[in-house]
Structure formats: C-alpha cells, structure tokens
C-alpha cells in the first residue's frame, strides 16, 4: 500500500516537472531499486496509471477537463471512456517497460548472489 502511494506520487510529481519522461525516469529508478524482486514491474505500471489518474483528478477540479474530453472525442472519433482508458494505459505501459528493462539489465550486468 505504501509502495503504491509513494510510487504514484513520484510518477505524478515527475510527470508534472518532466512531462511523460517523468514516468520513464521514476520507473527506471524503481526497476533498479527492486531488481531482485521479480514481478514488481506490474506494480510500477499500476502506480504510473494511478499517478496520472491523480493528475487527471487535479485537472478535473481546477480546469475544464470535460470540455477538453468532449473536444478530443469529436476530433479523434472515439468515446470519452476509451480516451480515458488510453490516457491511463500509456503511462502504465511506459512504467512497465522501463521497470522491466532496467531490472533485467541490472541483473545481467551485476547478478546477485543467490546462495
């Protein structure tokens, strides 16, 4: 639970400052930190989606997100729920791929003792 909270806040904060590259940076760091615990990448992906959901909620409370969603729905010819799903799927895939890649590369470069 704490991992998700800290990771989601890190994803949101780095996205706020670095753009979508913030997800890659945070996921790479988390992938390296948890390199010995395989299966952590899906948690990083979930935290990335949660971080972006937090940013969407903040935008909803402070700006015309509904107007933007309606406009994008008309331009892209897809329903708003699908647009929301794609918006949250993007950071999840970025986070998963960065965490997986860094974790595996770290284990290849410097394997840990399993004895």
Q: Please, could you describe this protein's structure?
A:
With 115 residues, the chain is mostly helical. It is 82% helix and 0% strand. It contains 5 helices and no strands. Helix 1 runs antiparallel to helix 2 (21-33) and helix 2 (21-33) runs antiparallel to helix 3. The longest helix has 30 residues, at 80-109. 29% of the residues are buried. The mean pLDDT is 86.
Brief write-up:
With 115 residues, the protein is mostly helical.
Number of helices: 5
Distance between the termini: 30 Å
Strand segment tally:
0
Strand content: under 5%
Instruction: Give the low-pLDDT segments.
Output: none
Anisotropy-based shape: elongated
Amount of helix: over 70%
What is the residue-mean pLDDT, rounded to a whole number? Answer: 86
**Class by alpha and beta content:** mainly alpha
Radius of gyration: 16 Å
Give the ordered list of helices and strands.
HHHHH
Largest sheet: none
